[in-house]
Design a protein that fits this description.
This protein is mainly α. Helices cover about 55% and strands about 0% of the residues. The protein has a domain of about 35 residues. Helix 3 crosses helix 4.
Length: about 55
Amino acid sequence: MVVSGVLAPGVGPVIAGAEPEPALSKILQGGLGNKSALRADYVDELLQAVSRPG
């Protein structure tokens, strides 16, 4: 739903600009057997790494 919403004309930029942490957390939790293994500081680090050069 997130991907299709981002690609939708008109509302795509609004959805893409929404707070990414909750969405990223839910996406990553989908691949984990133990949902508590995904720590908030790891998600924050991933989000910060995207804006770093290289």
